[in-house]
C-alpha cells in the first residue's frame, strides 16, 4: 500500500451507526408494553401456582368418640373434617365404622364400597358382615372382601388419647392380607 492510499483510509470520517427515531420509539414502546404485560401476568401466575407452593398438612386427627363406648360390635360414627383443596375450603361430613378387633385394638373402616362407591352397612343382610346394597358386595368385620369387590375396605388411621378416639386420614387396609 502506498503512502497516499494509507493516508486516505486513515482520514476518512468514521461512520457511526445511529439509532433512528423509529427504532427508538419501537424499543421504548416495546419495553413499556413488556413491563405492563409482566405486571398483569405475574399476579395471575402467582395465583395459579400458589396452592402448589403451600405446605401440605399431614394427617389431621379428629376427635370422634369416647374410648369406653367402643365394643366388639361395629357402630357408625359421623364426624366432620376441615379440608383445603387448592382455593376451596370445605367441612365435609364423613362416616366411619368403628370397633375393636379380636386383638383388642380399635380400628375404623371407611363405609365406601370398593366396587362402585356405594355406602355399606353392617349386618343388614348377613350377620357379622358388611354389605353393599348396590351389587351385593360383602366384607368381613376386618374389611376383607368376600365377594364382588376387588379390594378390601380402606381404614382410618386411629389414635387413642385421654380416653378419646381420634380418626386421621384414610389408608389402605392393614388388617387383612
Q: Can you describe this structure?
A:
The protein contains two helices and twelve strands, in the order H-H-E-E-E-E-E-E-E-E-E-E-E-E. The chain has helices spanning 3-10, 21-53, and strands spanning 62-66, 75-80, 83-85, 88-90, 93-100, 106-109, 121-122, 130-131, 138-139, 145-147, 155-161, 164-171. The mean pLDDT is 85.
Task: Briefly summarize what is shown.
This protein has 177 residues and is α+β, with helices and mostly antiparallel strands.
Key descriptive features of the protein:
2 helices, 12 strands, 30% strand, six-stranded antiparallel β-sheet, alpha+beta, 177 residues, four-stranded antiparallel β-sheet, single chain
* Class derived from helix and strand content: alpha+beta
Low-confidence stretches: none
Tally of individual helices: 2
What's the rounded overall pLDDT mean? 85
Please specify the SSE layout and strand pairing.
Blueprint: H1 3-10, H2 21-53, E1 62-66, E2 75-80, E3 83-85, E4 88-90, E5 93-100, E6 106-109, E7 121-122, E8 130-131, E9 138-139, E10 145-147, E11 155-161, E12 164-171
Antiparallel strand pairs: 1-12, 2-5, 3-4, 5-6, 6-11, 7-8, 8-9, 9-10, 11-12
